[in-house]
Write a structure and sequence with these properties.
Blueprint (H helix, E strand, L loop, with lengths): L2 H16 L16 E4 L2 E5 L12 H14 L14 H14 L3 E5 L2 H12 L5 E5 L4 H8 L4 E5 L4 H12 L8 E6 L11 H10 L3 E5 L14 H4 L8 E5 L9 E5 L1 H10 L1 H4 L6 H16 L2 H20 L10 E7 L1 H13 L2 E2 L1 E3 L9 E6 L6 H17 L5
Parallel strand pairs: 2-11, 4-5, 4-6, 6-7, 7-8
Antiparallel strand pairs: 1-2, 3-9, 8-9, 10-13, 12-13
Bound molecules: pyridoxal-5'-phosphate (PLP).
Length: 398
């Protein structure tokens, strides 16, 4: 063991601890659900991304068990060598059908989709224009590329247009221009104006890449995502998403054309150089998409719960920000207050996490409550009652 390295790492950890920036995750002692056992205590879950309650759905579990019986526990290889099973192909065909695109590519996670596809698409001489609040996996993907990076102000179409005009007025025009945006922004829950972005992209001959991690299963017809929400089918080049949130499993997806898919699977290092997901995950992911294609009941329930929860918090006088989705900030502004609120809520049987710097600006701390279709009215009412009690204790409401 290298003592010098360990001492330096310890100093850094101590410094993070002093700033209240250390992660000490609590442990689930059962399945992720609307009510579950966390650190041995029954709690109403208000911070999972399991929007539709699919993580513990009987159809997904059945599909996973059957796949293990037929195909085993692992895939045995990376996708390009011997790790592509017919299950992976079926899932990619189904994603394309669900998203109304020609084809799709399945990665091991949303993170590896962004960090593999973006550097593959963007080379020296290209320019990428990225929203300032895009997810860390996009930021890391762009860091791995040799393209010039430009950042536009959050959801600001005037700033995006100015950047596009600046680029096209250059004597040496960029080879490719790619606009990259989150679909739903994960900290605030607001939706990117994708219709405006696509219009600008078409006018300036740019391509578009949207990360729909929080829009999949939430927005659009049967949860098809942001492209369906804005009726932009066929006009977005890369529709990226994840299975780790509303779809209840694990994996990243990019819905796109056949040529784009072939390019990505030949060039993304995060697809080529890592073992593929095992049969259980892939079969459960297929079951999740099939379930959504059959019925929009869960998506509708998610929105009913979301509207009810937000309305009750507003009536109580909480500041819930500008969210347009089930992501519900409860603004405390002060980081210590957000942490205190989370601890007190846990004492009261509600698990909701604080979001503080560097995830948001220093003066924008909050509790982020995530609503799901699985919450019953009783569970939501219980959570609201406790939020009201703790909110009064901390002076957030009168
Ligand atoms: C906007 C966004 N993109 C990508 C990801 C990464 O997805 P995954 O969990 O599949 O790696 C997340 C998850 O936190 C996210 O919120």
């Amino acid at each position: 063991m290298n003592k010098k390295l360990e001492t330096e790492l310890k100093q850094e950890l101590d410094s993070l601890g002093q700033q209240s920036l250390l992660w000490n995750p609590r442990t689930l002692n059962g399945p992720s659900g609307a009510k579950t056992i966390i650190d041995g205590k029954e709690s109403v879950m208000l911070c999972s991304n399991n929007y539709l309650g699919l993580a513990n759905h009987r159809k997904l579990k059945k599909a996973a068990i059957e796949a293990i019986r037929k195909y085993g526990a692992g895939s045995g290889s990376v996708r390009p060598i011997a790790g592509t099973m017919d299950l992976h192909i079926r899932l990619e065909e189904l994603i394309a059908k669900f998203k109304h695109t020609d084809d799709s590519i399945y990665y091991n996670s949303g993170f590896t989709a962004n960090s593999g596809a973006l550097p593959a698409l963007l080379r020296e001489g290209d320019v990428v224009i990225s929203d300032e609040l895009n997810h860390g996996s996009i930021i890391d993907g762009l860091r791995l590329s040799k393209a010039e990076r430009m950042i536009y102000r959050h959801n600001d179409m005037n700033d995006l247009e100015a950047k596009l005009k600046e680029m096209t007025a250059r004597p040496q025009k960029p080879n490719r221009i790619l606009i990259v945006t989150d679909g739903v922004f994960s900290m605030d829950g607001d939706i990117a104006p994708l219709d405006g972005i696509v219009e600008l992209a078409e006018r300036h001959d740019a391509a578009t890449y949207v990360d729909d991690a929080h829009g999949d299963g939430v927005l659009g017809e049967n949860g098809r995502g942001i492209v369906s929400h804005f009726k932009l089918e066929g006009r977005v080049d890369f529709e990226m998403g994840t299975f780790s949130k509303a779809f209840g499993t694990m994996g990243g997806l990019i819905a796109t054309s056949k040529t784009n898919k072939q390019y990505l699977l030949n060039k993304s290092r995060t697809w080529l150089l890592t073992g593929s997901h095992g049969p259980a995950t892939v079969a459960a992911s297929i079951a999740a998409i099939e379930l959504l294609m059959e019925s929009d009941t869960l998506v509708r329930k998610l929105w009913r719960n979301t509207k009810y929860f937000k309305k009750r918090l507003k009536e109580l006088g909480f500041d819930t920000g500008n969210s347009q989705t089930p992501i519900t900030p409860i603004m405390t502004y002060d980081a210590a207050k957000a942490r205190q609120m989370s601890v007190r809520l846990f004492d009261e049987g509600v698990y909701a996490l604080p979001i503080v710097f560097p995830m948001v600006a220093k003066d924008k701390a909050r509790i982020r409550a995530m609503i799901t279709a699985e919450h019953s009215k009783e569970e939501l009412d219980f959570a609201i009652l406790k939020i009201e009690k703790v909110g009064r204790e901390l002076g957030l409401i009168k």
